[in-house]
Design brief:
Strand 8 (190-193) and strand 9 (196-199) form a beta hairpin. The chain has a single domain (2-199), classed as Formyl transferase, N-terminal domain (Rossmann fold, 3-Layer(aba) Sandwich), CATH 3.40.50.170. The strands form two sheets. A seven-stranded mixed β-sheet has the order 3-2-1-4-5-6-7, sandwiched between helices. It is built from six helices and nine strands. The protein is α/β, with parallel strands linked by helices.
Length: 202
């Protein structure tokens, strides 16, 4: 299975996938290409250091979301991408993009969805006084962080936490959860019925 990763930021979740691939922990999944929308982001540096194929499509150079998404689709096609992984990709994908990869786009989100969707989820959880937060890998739909949930990991919010300590502990769990889900999908162990996702034993 060829995996295309889209990212916008530091690329720590991308690095987790790169490290997992290097230790043969992605099963039949192969990192085929990494695309970024921020030309100088850390994810691009990490991808190039790993010798991965890359592309840069600056969203600011496109007049509409649809034009940007069409450019990204055109960049993915030569790599025969089977699964698109959003790893800190700070763009909302259009219905046309999602239709092109129907049921084959996943995202990692730093909360236990459906709680705290959108941006700054760790800060939302901390400020709300949540006792448990965590991270979620889910299929992507047109709504914000609304797709069927594949897997989650809980992270306790400690009495002596601050936002940064909580963010880092959640991030560490994202780094473990995302590669595991990519492998499960590549091995054909993930199925969806309505909003229920079933993961067969490995």
């Amino acid at each position: 299975m060829n995996v295309g990763v889209l990212a916008s930021g530091t690329g720590s979740n991308l690095q987790a996938l790169i490290d997992a691939a290097g230790h043969d922990e992605l099963g039949p999944a192969r990192l085929a290409v990494v695309g970024v929308n921020v030309p100088d982001c850390g994810a691009l540096t990490r991808a190039r250091a790993a010798g991965l194929a890359t592309f840069v499509i600056d969203h600011r150079a496109h007049p509409t979301r649809d034009a940007f998404d069409q450019a990204v689709l055109a960049a993915l096609r030569p790599h025969a991408v089977d699964l698109v992984v959003l790893a800190g990709f700070m763009r909302i994908l259009t219905p046309a993009f999602l239709a092109a990869f129907s049921g084959r786009v996943i995202n990692v989100h730093p909360s236990l969805l459906p709680a705290f969707p959108g941006v700054h989820s760790q800060a939302q959880a901390f400020r709300h006084g949540a006792k448990i937060s965590g991270c979620t890998v889910h299929f992507v739909e047109t709504g914000v962080d609304s797709g069927p949930i594949i897997a989650q990991t809980a992270v306790a919010v400690r009495d002596d936490d601050d936002e940064e300590r909580l963010r880092l502990r959640i991030l560490a769990e994202e780094h473990r959860l995302l590669p595991a889900v990519v492998r499960q999908i590549a091995e054909g162990r993930v199925s969806v019925q309505g909003r229920r996702v079933h993961v067969a034993p490995g």
